[in-house]
Amino acid sequence: MKLRPSTQQIDFQQRRALVTGAGKGIGRSIAVMLHRFNARVVAVSRTQSDLEDLGNAIGCETIFADLQDANAAKEAAESAGEIDLLVNNAGIAILQPFLETTVGAFDQTIAVNLRAPMIIGQIVAAGMIRRGVAGSIVNVSSMSSFQALRDHAAYAASKAGLDQLTNVMAVELGQYGIRVNSVNPTVVMTEMGKRAWSDAAKGKPMLDRIPLRRFAECDEIASVVCFLLSDAASMLNGLSLRVDGGFLVT
To answer: Quick check: 140 and 151 in contact, CB under 8 A?
Structure first.
C-alpha cells in the first residue's frame, strides 16, 4: 500500500483503535493503515474468514458480530475494552427505487449504517470519558448524504442521518476533548464498488462529474480517516469531509 506524504509522520503510539466493518474494502484498508501507524487494532466484522485473514496479516484483535442486531453491536463495543480511537465504518447498501423501497431494506440499512454507530459510539465515548481520554471518532459516511442518487433512498437517508449524528456527538463530546468527524467518499473501488459501477452506462456519467476523472481507492479514504483520528487534526471537530475528487463543486 502506497502511503501519501501527508500521513507518513502519524504515530498512534499503541493507542487502541476499534474499526467496524474491518473485514473488507475500506475497513480493511483503515485497519491495515492504523496498524502501520502503530495503533493496536481491534477489528469487527460479520465474516469470520475475513477476520482470520486480517488477524493473520496484522496481528490484530478480532470480534465477530453482526451489527444489524442492536444487542450484538452493544456486546461488540463492550467486549472491545478500553478504546482510544473509533472508526464506525460498517455499512450496507440495498439499492432500490424509492417507490420499491421495502420496509425491511430500509430498517436493515438504518440498523447497520446509523443505529450501530450510535450504540457503539455511546459505549466507546462513555469509556473515554470515564478514563479521561481525549479520544477521536470517525464515522464513515458517503457523498450521497449531500447528493441525491437514484435507487439510494434508504442508503442516502442513513448517511445523512449519520452526518447529523456526527454533529450532535461533536457538540456533546467536545467538552471532554473527544473529537467526532465524518468522511464522505465518492464511489470507492472496493470489490462491491467495482461490481456496481463498472458498467459504463452507469459509471461514465458519474466519472464525468468528477474533475479528477476517476473513482477513489480504499487507501485514499483510509489515509483521510487516519489523519482525522490523529493529533494533526486536533482542531477538527464536527466536520463532514468530502473525499469526492471535486464531484460536488461541478
So the answer is: no
Domains and CATH numbers, the chain: 14-188+218-242 (3.40.50.720)
What pairs with residue 86 in β-bridges? Answer: 18, 137
What nine digits make up the cell of 121?
Answer: 459510539
Note the maximum CA span of the chain: 52
pTM of the model: 0.94
Per-residue pLDDT reduced to its tens digit, 9-52? 899 999 999 999 999 999 999 999 999 999 999 999 999 999 99
Locate all alpha helices (DSSP H) within the chain, ordered by sequence. Answer: 25-36, 48-58, 70-79, 103-110, 116-131, 153-173, 191-197, 200-208, 218-229
Q: Which three cell numbers stand for residue 174?
A: 467536545
Q: How many CB atoms lie within 10 A of CB 117?
A: 30
Burial 25-49 (b: 16+ CB within 10 A, else e): bbbbbbbbbbbbbebbbbbbbbeee
- Residues tagged active-site: 155, 159
Identity of residue 71: N
Q: How far apart are the first and last CA of the chain?
A: 30
